[in-house]
Design brief:
The chain is 45% helix and 17% strand. The protein contains 13 helices and 12 strands. A hairpin with a 2-residue loop joins strand 4 and strand 5. Helix 3 runs parallel beside helix 5, helix 3 packs across helix 13 and helix 6 runs parallel beside helix 8. The chain is globular, with a radius of gyration of 19 Å.
Length: 301
């Protein structure tokens, strides 16, 4: 799947991904009122809003961006109805030709990690296999070491999928742990070394590993250091736009051929209509399309 993602990026000449992270406040009022009238003020109403909103966003950015990244927390907060909207969103995105990155940030002891790895490995029931989540990649937390990662690597290799390991995250307080110097180098570079080690047996034909890294856009110098340490590791780069990261900040994240990254924007795309009155609420999908095109132009320079 890492090879497929690279091919899709090349085909669209666009190394960006749209984060599908809806909130109730982000949904246009006409859509909120419609679903509340139909389902009451319930989690089911919000789930239906999210699904309708996502469907319009996906249609708007189809053929522009190669991938989407739904963050599961925005759906989980609404219980089973929300998770159903997440699953349906991922399934629809796959049908429409997007690579799906499930932002689930899982990490636990081996047996639990093996259960979580069903997100990409599928679930078997009495000899029947089910791909319940429709994800091509997922994000994982490396804090438990290889015990919490190996089940995901096994699933990647078996199903030709991928993982993004948190290395240097985009949030401001990441420095509290990730920048602590141990044995002469920051923790995030120790994690990068583990990512390199874990990925050696999971290489794609493109020369990139199925074991990839999350490196936040606001950390220009740190990202360049991680790239130097990980020449064969593909990066998911959050933090562009709303979190302060710029195209200039991430120049050093790409490899010598200008490849090796996919840059995420969530609010900056899906809530773009709120920043420009010309679109109006009913033009939210058009605003998202234009924002996606503007991001592509900015990143590609």
């Amino acid at each position: 799947m890492i090879d497929a993602l690279l091919s899709r990026i090349d085909a669209l000449n666009n190394p960006t991904v749209v984060g599908l992270d809806p909130t109730l406040e982000m949904i246009p009022s006409y859509l909120r009122e419609e679903k509340f009238a139909q389902y009451g003020k319930t989690p089911e109403a919000v789930a239906e809003m999210f699904l309708a909103f996502n469907r319009a966003i996906l249609a708007a950015v189809q053929g522009i961006v190669p991938a989407v990244k739904p963050q599961i927390a925005f759906y989980e907060r609404y219980g089973l109805a929300g998770l159903s909207a997440y699953e349906k969103t991922a399934a629809l995105a796959k049908e429409m030709g997007f690579v799906v990155i499930g932002d689930i940030k899982r990490g636990d002891i081996g047996s639990t990690a093996a259960a979580y790895a069903a997100h990409i490995g599928g679930t078997e029931i009495a000899g029947e296999r089910f791909d319940l989540w429709h994800e091509d990649f997922v994000t994982v937390n490396p804090y438990l070491g290889i015990d919490g990662i190996q089940p995901f690597i096994d699933a990647c290799n078996k199903e030709n999928k991928g993982i993004f390991v948190l290395v240097k995250t985009s949030n401001p307080s990441s420095s509290q742990l990730q920048d602590i110097v141990v044995d002469g180098k920051p923790v995030y570079l120790h994690v990068a070394a583990l990512v390199d080690e874990w990925g050696r047996a999971a290489m794609g034909a493109s020369g990139y590993s199925r074991v990839c890294a999350v490196v936040g856009a606001p950390h220009r110098a740190e990202g360049a250091r991680v790239r130097a340490a990980l020449p064969h590791t593909f990066f998911l780069v959050p933090g562009y736009g709303a979190q302060g990261g710029t195209a200039e900040d991430i120049r050093g994240f790409f490899d010598k051929d200008g490849r090796g990254c996919i840059v995420n924007s969530s609010r900056g795309i899906i809530a773009a209509y709120k920043k420009n009155e010309k679109y109006g609420e009913r033009g939210f999908a058009d605003a998202a399309r234009d924002a996606a095109l503007a991001m592509k132009k900015d990143i590609m320079g």
